[in-house]
Amino acid sequence: MSELLQQQHDNGVLELVLNRPDKKNALTLAMYAGLTEALQSAAGNDQVRAVLLRGEGDSFTAGNDLADFVQCAQRPESMQTILDFLHALVDFPKPLLAAVQGNAVGIGTTLLLHCDHVLVADNLKAQMPFVKLGLVPEGGSSLLLPGMLGQRLAFELLVQGGLITAERACQLGIANQQVAPERLYDQALAAAAAIIALPQQAVIQSKAILRAPQRAALHQVIDEEGQQFAQRLTSPEALAVLNGFLNKSSR
Ligand code: COA
Asked: How far is Cα 214 from Cα 224, in angstroms, rounded to an integer?
C-alpha cells in the first residue's frame, strides 16, 4: 500500500485515508489501484464490517490527478485502473461511508453516489466540472444522478458543473449529514459504529437488495462512460484545458 493511501483498522471499521494533502488528495493511478485492492480485500475480511473513506488535510480530493489524465490520453489502457476502482465500488458488499471536507471534485463527488452514508463538513465545495474540462460524466453518475434528481438538476450538476455546498448536498440526497469540520471525523466514526451495531448479515443482504435493480446497468454504464471519457481525453478541447492547468502549476 502506497503512503499516499493509508489504512487504519479499528473496531470493525477500516479507514481508507487519501494522504496527499499537498495536492489536495488528487488521485493517481497508484492510489486507485490501492483503493481497489483494499476494497476487494475488505470484502472478504470478516474483521471488517464497514469502510470509511476520508482525506487528510483541507480537502477530500481534487479528483483525478490531472497529470495522470494526460498520461491516460497517451495510453488509453491505463484508464482501466480507474474503471476497476469504480466497478469495485459498485460491488463492495459492506457499508461504505465517506467523510468529506473542502474540495470534492469530479470523481471526488461521483464516488459519493456509491456510498451508503455520507457526512459532509460545512466547508464542502463539491463539483463535477467534467464538461468544463472538455470531458464527459463518469463513475455511473450519468445513470445515478438523473435517477435521483431528474434530468434538469442532473444537467445542472453534471454538464454545467455547478458548485454543491454542504446544505445543497444534504438537500439533494448526495449527503446524509452536515457537520462542523472539526467534528467530521468523530461523527463519521459514530455513524459507522451505529451501522456496524446492526446485525451484520442482515445489513449486507439489505445493501445487496437495494443495489440489485441497478447493479448490472451500473457496470455497463461505467464502461460506456469510460470509453467516451477516454476518447474525450485526446480531444483538442480537453488537452487544451489539461495542459493549461499543468503549465500553470509547474510555474
Ligand atoms: N491533479 C493534480 N494536481 C492537483 C489537482 C489535480 N486534480 N488539484 C490540485 N492539484 C495541485 C495543484 O497543482 C497544486 O500543486 P502545486 O502546489 O504543486 O502548484 C496543489 O494541488 C494545490 O492546488 P491549488 O490549485 O493551489 O489549491 P486551491 O485551493 O487554490 O484550489 C482546487 C483547489 C481543487 C479547486 C483546484 O486545485 C482545482 O481546481 N484542481 C483541479 C480539479 C479538477 O479539475 N479535477 C479533475 C476533475 S475531473
From this structure: 15
